[in-house]
Amino acid sequence: MTAWTDDRGMTMREDGLRGLMQPWSMTVNRFIEHAARWHGDREVVSFRDDGVVERTDYAGIRRDAARLSNALLAHGVAPGDRVATLAMNSGAHLAAWYGIAGIGAVCHTLNPRFSEDQLAWIIDHAGDRMLMADGAFAEMAGQLARRCPSIEKLLLFTPPQGESSGQLVEDFSAGHSDECAWGGFDEELAAGLCYTSGTTGDPKGVLYSHRSNVLHTLFTLQPDALNLSARDVVMPIVPMYHANAWGLAFSAPAVGTRLVMPGSRLDGATLFERMRDEGVTFAAAVPTAWLGLLDYLEAHDERLPALSRVVVGGAAMSEQLLRRLDARGIEAIAAWGMTELSPVGGVSAPLPATAAMTSEERIASRLKQGRVPFGVDMRIVDENGAPLPHDGVAAGALQMRGPAVAAGGSVAKIGGSQR
Amino acid sequence: MTAWTDDRGMTMREDGLRGLMQPWSMTVNRFIEHAARWHGDREVVSFRDDGVVERTDYAGIRRDAARLSNALLAHGVAPGDRVATLAMNSGAHLAAWYGIAGIGAVCHTLNPRFSEDQLAWIIDHAGDRMLMADGAFAEMAGQLARRCPSIEKLLLFTPPQGESSGQLVEDFSAGHSDECAWGGFDEELAAGLCYTSGTTGDPKGVLYSHRSNVLHTLFTLQPDALNLSARDVVMPIVPMYHANAWGLAFSAPAVGTRLVMPGSRLDGATLFERMRDEGVTFAAAVPTAWLGLLDYLEAHDERLPALSRVVVGGAAMSEQLLRRLDARGIEAIAAWGMTELSPVGGVSAPLPATAAMTSEERIASRLKQGRVPFGVDMRIVDENGAPLPHDGVAAGALQMRGPAVAAGGSVAKIGGSQR
């Protein structure tokens, strides 16, 4: 028998010997705190729906988030409460994510492309207490606030286009302290909520934990996944309300990239101008956004020399899209994911064998949706649940596993709220 | 008031709403399991002390580790028991790390450069039950096994040089199953133990947890830290018994790099030959190893075209060393760390501003020991504990914080074992 004690009175436990490392809860506020402290002057640029180009930095985002947290606390928002957003990508939306999650409340991103009926169903299902919307969505947001009894207050990120009962977030936060003691709670608590429309039945909610968001961020920062560095200028074209914006709202501040939020105008000419003017090096979007940009680049014989690599996700990348991006000097990385995976499942980073391939073989290899990064595991099983070989031939049901994978198979079904 | 239930019967807790993501304990066996599953045929090459060049792969390391785990369990090794190693870097040593930690036992790396008296003190202090040593250290290991009553069994990784009572690890593991159910325990349990010699007083033990090792690995994989990819061929010259080998025993399998273990001959000519023959792209070592390699390269006007970047740690990198490496086309990255930090504290990755610097400014910037990656935090405090500005001018005491930082200030002092 062995007993073991140390200066701090530790003893051997039933299940083994406890390590002696510092406690450090994995909560998402760590990302914006790290960015504000070590990359505080790195810019966050937002192309707002009212035409204003807003320039702040990570220190500013942290400050705005802290003020919002304090305003939410003063309003009575408690840990576990759901606060919804209906907004495109912007610095203000980013500050709201951190302001909501930092105090243990849950940031529920609504998809503005859903119908009013769908959104009302989702808000009721989630029991959202507040709704924060872009000015461009003020009318829809007002309708939802009237229809959904759980919504106590409507806030607006930007001035409303038309009449609105909503208060500007800036006014709601005004006068509150720049400092807020974030985190300090269980890392398993929920940080975010996102409903997928699904193909059958009612929308299904995925409830991300602080832990799952922090680990997903670390998994995707790897060089063979999104490969982000402080030297990058990142444009998340994929919206923050869709599939967690590929985690970029966390991974960009985690490494201190410059961040360019494109807002709602995503046509080829606008994307080109903004990417060129802001020196974007990395962007993530669905194939349609890339097709629009390519049409513009080809029609005007333009290039984006700073744009070194782009992630193409949300739908399969066609061979033609890959070749067209290649021809403009843009390296396309195919990625596969889903809301239930936080969302990254696989990334097509080259392997050692890739270097020895012919150019045609390399293109075929890059069209595959890649392999899983550490932290994601997958297998294919037959109808009896027995694992099948992962040889690209065997067909069966896909099973995913990991700390950033929704519990309960691949879909977390959240039941109705009771108020 | 809000109540919240879901299909799985979840209810709102006192402290908030629990996220709905899969449980996934962060235990180090995940690294070798990932490597064996997705990079199983990636080679692990060992230059053994008996002259044998051993070639296996991650599938082989996982298999050897599982056999060893089963042999340890059969011998009665229980969770929390300490198993010591006295060995240079090799695939067998790597398999031992995973075989020991996978069953919840603690891998205690001994430094062969310590005196026999120091090692005996440390073994007694840690209460190690077994000792696994390289054949080259068989005599010292035999002495220690005789002196230290806690040691029940002596195992050898390679045939002994001279007489020894030790059993070969291969023979000890023979006949045991290739499969072992690793992990499944609390991620806060200890995985590794390393004593620093310190500058005053007795050696101090640092007790790494599974969680701290997994998180440290993820922090250091970032592009602005060690930046490892599956396309890398990694040579950890820094020994596994010193400062956790910069975490490379975990980070290399986590991404599936090829791994070249240099063994004990670390002179310039030998390093050159092995790096050239194996196509090493990344290596980590203290400045003296680099000086030896550079002397050889310069005397023979040789280059190592595959070697794209090296980490220089353990002691400050001199300007001359940086310039000499530059002149041979090898990018040197200064890193700062200590055993108590698992060990990476800071890495001198370039910032956006670096691109605009003159070549001389860039060299001055690269000689700094860098900034902290996400997951490590530091501050400088005055004698009253008040934070000072991090401006490169203020001098005070350094405080480190993070989940891979030893608890109890920066040094974990582990008390004597009682048997």
From TrEMBL, chains A, B:
Keyword entries, A-Z: Ligase
Alphabetized Gene3D superfamilies for the sequence: N-terminal domain of ligase-like
Keyword set includes Ligase: yes
Gene Ontology molecular function terms on file: ligase activity
Entry-linked InterPro entries: AMP-binding_CS (IPR020845), AMP-dep_synth/lig_dom (IPR000873), ANL_N_sf (IPR042099), ATP-dep_AMP-bd_enzyme (IPR050237)
Keyword Plastid found: no
A Pfam family the protein falls into: AMP-binding
Top-level lineage group: Bacteria
Domain AMP-dependent synthetase/ligase intervals: 33-408
PANTHER family documented for this protein: LONG-CHAIN-FATTY-ACID--COA LIGASE, MEDIUM-CHAIN-FATTY-ACID--COA LIGASE
Protein name, as recorded: Acyl-CoA synthetase (AMP-forming)/AMP-acid ligase II
Species of origin: Sphingobium jiangsuense
